[in-house]
Design brief:
This protein is globular. The chain is 9% helix and 51% strand. A hairpin with a 2-residue loop joins strand 2 and strand 3. It starts with a strand and ends with a strand. It is mostly beta strands and 141 residues long. The longest helix has 7 residues, at 64-70.
Length: 141
């Protein structure tokens, strides 16, 4: 199944953290809620267990290098990302869209942590989305 590609970010003790996720979904329009899932084996799992705010950066076409970096254990992820840190969580400046929100609930679901996020703000940029399907990054045509 084709999915969007997101990078979820937060700041904890002054340090930015993030991970790549394609398990992102809208939950409710009123109130505006979204969800994302994080594998328990992710190195940033402990940070997202306590984080209060996140940015969900929906990647644009051509940002597959960021998706790979943020999915790589031990990578210096923020060294290659152009970010705006003026919010509670780093925003990727060239993402197609960024959803800012507060973590409202956490649930352990199997081997993943489900974050239920109350949406505070959305930044949209007129860019084509990056899509992931059958283990390959693709663009819409």
């Amino acid at each position: 199944m084709a999915t969007s590609v997101t990078i979820v970010t937060t700041t904890h003790d002054g340090t930015p953290h993030g991970f790549t996720a394609n398990s992102f979904a809208a939950v409710s329009r009123n109130p505006p809620l979204v969800t994302v899932f994080l594998d328990e084996s992710a190195e940033c799992y402990p940070v997202f267990e306590v984080a209060e705010h996140v940015a969900i950066n929906v990647l644009a076409d051509g940002q597959d290098h960021l998706a790979r970096a943020f999915a790589t254990r031990g990578a210096d992820k923020f060294a290659i990302a152009d970010v705006d840190e003026a919010h509670h969580a780093p925003i990727l400046r060239d993402a197609m869209a960024t959803i800012l929100g507060a973590i409202q609930e956490r649930y352990v679901v199997g081997d993943h942590l489900m974050l239920l996020i109350a949406v505070d703000d959305v930044h949209y940029r007129d860019r084509e989305p990056l899509v992931y399907h059958n283990r390959v990054f693709r663009k819409l045509v």
